[in-house]
Amino acid sequence: MSTMESLIGLVNRIQRACTVLGDHGGGENMSLWEALPSVAVVGGQSSGKSSVLESVVGRDFLPRGSGIVTRRPLVLQLHKIEEGRSDYAEFLHQPRKKWTDFAAVRKEIQDETDRITGKTKAISNIPIQLSIYSPNVVNLTLIDLPGLTKVAVEGQQESIVQDIENMVRSYVDKPNCIILAISPANQDIATSDAIKLAREVDPTGERTFGVLTKLDLMDKGTNALDVLEGRSYRLQHPWVGIVNRSQADINKNIDMIIARRKEREYFETSPEYGHLSSKMGAEYLAKLLSKHLETVIRQRIPSIIALINKTIDEINAELDRVGRPIATDSGAQLYTILELCRAFDRVFKEHLDGGRPGGDRIYGVFDHQLPAALKKLPFDRHLSTKNVQKVVSEADGYQPHLIAPEQGYRRLIDGSIGFFKGPAEASVDAVHFILKELVRKSIAETEELKRFPTLQSDIAAAANESLERFRDDSRKTVLRLVDMESSYLTVEFFRKLQMEPDKPTNSKEAPNPAVPAIDRYNDHHFRRIGSNVNAYINMVCDTLRNSVPKAVVYCQVREAKRSLLNHFYTQIGRREKEQLGAMLDEDPQLMERRTQLAKRLELYKSARDEIDSVAWK
Fold this sequence. Notes:
Layout: H1 3-20, H2 32-35, E1 38-43, H3 49-57, E2 74-80, E3 88-91, E4 94-99, H4 102-117, E5 128-134, E6 140-144, H5 160-172, E7 177-184, H6 193-201, E8 208-213, H7 225-228, E9 240-241, H8 247-251, H9 256-269, H10 282-322, H11 330-353, H12 359-375, H13 379-382, H14 385-396, H15 406-418, H16 421-445, H17 453-487, H18 491-495, H19 517-520, H20 523-563, H21 566-572, H22 577-583, H23 588-615
Parallel strand pairs: 1-6, 1-7, 2-5, 7-8, 8-9
Antiparallel strand pairs: 2-6, 3-4, 3-5
Helix pairs in contact: 1-10, 1-23, 3-10, 10-23, 11-16, 11-22, 12-16, 14-15, 14-20, 15-17, 15-20, 16-17, 16-20, 17-20
C-alpha cells in the first residue's frame, strides 16, 4: 500500500471511529471529523449523482427512482483491500454484519431512510454511514447529499427546497470539504444548481471539482468541450466527463466493471473527446479525488495535530471533572468514601462559618424569629386584671390570703413561664431545618460526590439522622432552661418590690375588719399584682432570649460541626467490600460519559500517533 493510500485510509478509519463515538461535529467547536477532509457530492435531482457514485465504487448499490431518492445524507467510506478478496459492505447501525449482496445494501439504505423519515418524501439530516471494502476502489470518503430542487412536488412541504439547500450548505460551507459538483451535459451549465451553490461557498474554486454527466445523451452535433476544457466555466481543477450506464444497461443489470470498460471505450473512440480520454471517466475521477485528498490532508496535518492536542487536553480536563475510575479493593474503596465524606464536611462547615451562604440564617432565627415570637406571647391576656383576680382567688381557695397572695403569684408566674416553651422549641426546629437544608446544599455543591448518587443518599440519611439526635438533645435542653426558671424564682426581685397595703378611698374612713379580705381588694390591687408578675416575666424573657440561642448552638450547630458523620464513619468501617462497592455505585449516565471520554481520548491519541507515523514518510 502506498503512502497516499495509507494516509487516506487512516483518515477514513479515524472518521469512522469518530462517527461511532458520536464525535462528528455539529457544535460550536470543530470536531476531528470535520477537520479531516472529505468529498461532498452535490447536484440537482436527476443530475446523475447516484450513477457517478456507483461508477466510482464499481457496484450497483444505491436506490433509484424519480423525484427525491436520496432523502438522508449517505456518508460513504471506501476502503481499498487486497486483490483477490471479495467486496463487502458494513453499515454503522449494524456494525457486526457484513453485506456481500449489494442489492440487499440498496434495500437497507431505503429501509434505514424510511425508519427516520417514514415512507414519505420528507428529508432528514441524520446521516447513514456505509463502508465499502473492495480491491476496485481507492481510499476515499464521499458524502452523497439530497439532490437540489427548485420546486416542491405533491406530498412535500413547501419548505423542502430551502431545507435541502440548507442541509447541503451545512456540509459544503466547511473549509475542509471538497465539493464534487455534478452537472448534466445535456443542460446549460449556466443553470447548474451544483455550480451555482459551489460558486457561492467556494468563489475561488479551490475546493470544487466539476463533473459533467450524460455526455452520451447530448443532441447530435453538439458537445461539451467548452465546459470540459474550462472555457465556459473555469475551475482551478480540471473538469471530468462521465458516461453513466444507460437505462437499458441498468435494466439488464450490466456489471459495473463492464460499464467502466464501456465508458473507457466511449472516450477513447470519441472524435470529440478522444484527446481527453486519459482524463475522463469514473476511474480517473476517483484517482484524481484521492490524489487531491492526500494533498489536502498533508496541508492540513499541522492544524489537525493542533486540534487533536487541544481536544486531548479538553478531554483530560473533563475526565478530571467527571472523576477517574475507582479502585476495586476494599481498602481503597473505604479510603475513597472517607475522602468524599471529608470533602462534604468541608463544604458544610464553610456554610456554617461564613465561607458560603446559609449560616447567617441561623443568626436570623436568634436575632429576629425568637424575639418576634417572644413579643407575641399572650401575657396581656394572662396578666389581665380579670385573670389575675381569677387565678389569685382560685389559689386562695376557701381561705383568702392574709398579706401577699404568694400562691397566686406562683401560679401566675408558672403559667407565664410556660408560654416560653413554644418559642424555645420553635427556635430548635428552625435551626434544625436550616441545618438539614445546608446538608442538602452541601451534598449538591460537593463536586467529588456528584458521580456517586448512592453515597450522596447515604451521607444525607446519616447526616439527617445525626441532626435529629441533635434536635432532640437541644429540645430537652431549652425546655430544661424554661423549667429551671419555674423551679426556683429569684427571691431578691420580690424583696425589692414595695408591697404597701392598699389605703382606703376616704382617709377619714377606717377599714372595717369585719368585711371579708377578698372584698377589701379592688382592681388596683390586682393590677399591682399583674404588674409585678409582668416585671418578673420580662426579666425571665431577657434571660431566655440569651440562653436559648446558646443552648441551640451548643447542642445543634456545635455538634453538627464536630460530629455530623461520626456515627456513619463507625458504620462504614464495619462494612464488607460488596457494601462499600455499592455505596460507590455511580450514576449510569456518568459512567457512560466517562467511558465515552476514555474512548475518545484513546481515539485522539491513536490518531495523533498514526498521523505522525504515516504523514512524514
